[in-house]
Specification:
Order of helices and strands: HEHHEEHEEEHEEHH
Largest sheet: 4 strands, antiparallel
Number of helices: 7
Mean pLDDT: 93
Number of strands: 8
Distance between the termini: 9 Å
Structural class: alpha+beta
Strand order of the largest sheet: 2-3-1-4
Radius of gyration: 22 Å
């Protein structure tokens, strides 16, 4: 299934993991070749049969599979066209998909499923499956927060928001933070980053200087209907 929205795809992958689809293979393919690949998976692994049929097969010990995908932008400067990022997921059990595909286990730390931009990964924290920021993405935020908070006065740009002086760089960063996908573990990470941001601001900036906005919370990701491309 080809999704228009990254958030919708992330939610479907999370739901699939919650339903026992622990094994996966992933990659990129040219847009014009995607339909051919999808038909091949449907023929060989029955990835497009109904949920009811898949549930019956799981009860008999057979493996079932589902294909998820979304378009991703290429890099025009490198003559890279738009491609499709796909994830073929499978359950435990006996089936061709386990024989013919080199499947990884998303329950293992070293083979967690990560989005193609490298920013988020699907994990189980002992409570349920959710997405969280990768260590590298999290570290980039921390480095940027410290960098902005420690800027010398001549490099700071002050603007007015709702008639209140604000630091432009930190407000832009906060906008990025609160635009993160609001999955449970991402929300927790954003909360910790905002706590770090305020601590660094208090440590490195005079109290008389403009303070960061107090944004209440990052909204949850509600159920998203399928919007197929």
């Amino acid at each position: 299934m080809l999704y228009e929205s990254k958030l919708t795809l992330m939610q479907r992958l999370q739901q699939a993991a919650g339903n026992g689809y622990f094994h996966y293979t992933t990659g990129h393919i040219e847009c014009e070749k995607f339909d051919t690949m999808a038909r091949k998976f449907a023929l060989q692994y029955e990835s497009e049969i109904s949920r009811q049929s898949k549930a019956r097969r799981k009860r008999t010990g057979a493996a079932t599979s589902t294909l998820f995908a979304m378009p991703v932008r290429g890099n025009p400067q490198k003559d890279q066209p738009e491609q499709v990022w796909f994830v073929l997921m499978a359950t435990d059990g006996v089936g061709r998909v386990h024989v013919r595909e080199r499947l990884q286990d998303l329950r293992q730390r070293e083979t967690r499923l990560t989005t193609p931009d490298g920013r988020h990964q699907l994990v189980h924290d002992g409570v349920s499956w959710s997405w969280q920021m990768t260590t590298s993405h999290l570290q980039k935020y921390r480095e940027r927060i410290h960098q902005i908070a420690s800027l010398p006065p001549q490099r700071r740009r002050i603007i007015e928001l709702d008639n209140i002086p604000r630091d432009l760089a930190i407000e832009r960063l906060q906008d990025q933070l609160y635009a993160e996908p609001g999955f449970r573990l991402v929300r927790r990470q954003v909360g910790l980053l905002v706590k770090y941001l305020r601590a660094e601001w208090k440590r490195l900036r005079p109290a008389a200087e403009p303070q960061p906005r107090q944004i209440s919370y990052l909204p949850y990701i509600r159920f998203r209907p399928n919007h197929l491309k």
